Amino acid sequence: MLTIYGNKTFNVVKVVMAAEEIGLDYEYKMIDFTTGEMKSPEYLKIHPFGKVPAIEHNGTAIVESNNICRYLANIGGKKLYSDDPLAAAKIDEMIDFIGYHAGHTITTYFYQEIVKKAFHKAEPNKDSIAKAKETLDGQLPFIDEKLGSTEFICGDNITIADCVAFGMVMVHEYTSLDISEYENICRWYDMMKQRPSYAAMMEHIPGGYDFG
Question: How far apart are CA 29 and CA 108, in angstroms?
Answer without folding.
Answer: 26
